[in-house]
Amino acid sequence: DLRANGDRKNPALACGAGAAVYVTRSSFFGNQAATGGGLHAACEASLSNATFANNTATVGSGGVHGTAKLGVLQCTFAGNKAPASPAIGSEGPLTLKNTLVAGVAKDVPACTAKVLLASVQNLVEDGSCNATLKGPVSLAASLQSCGVTQTWALLGGSPAVDAGDAGVCSALPVGGVDGCGVARPNGLGCDIGAAEWTGP
Fold it and tell me: What is the pLDDT of residue 84?
């Protein structure tokens, strides 16, 4: 697991052209950079079961900024801020599946992609990146620890509960577990985002 708190000058994690990075069951929170407060990926990047919370960019995208092929599967973005795209900004091909984006700005789209290869069962508050669902997502008030990582828990009645694509949540690299190691699905169906709802 990678829980990163950046130095407020550089992204928590960055990779250069020609490389590749794979991140799973990790959280990026409270980081600040010019672009990509949580992750700046000039390389091919694959993210699964990861949480990006309260990251900030002064120019580009707050949570994740990619310039190469970017895959985002079963991730949660909340409270990220940036003037271009608060949560996700992709200058290259973007694949977005079973991902939840909350706490967006009113004047810019939460998610932008130069090329959107696929958008499957995403819940994005403002509906950007061709999200299947939009509107309030009903998250816990603060990050919660679960094992070695932290994430935003879903509240009962959230539209993300049981709304994920079953094929996405069972296939690798997601592998049938959430960011806390809970088996998916936990209930009638797979949930959207990094954490399955486990409440009563």
Answer: 86
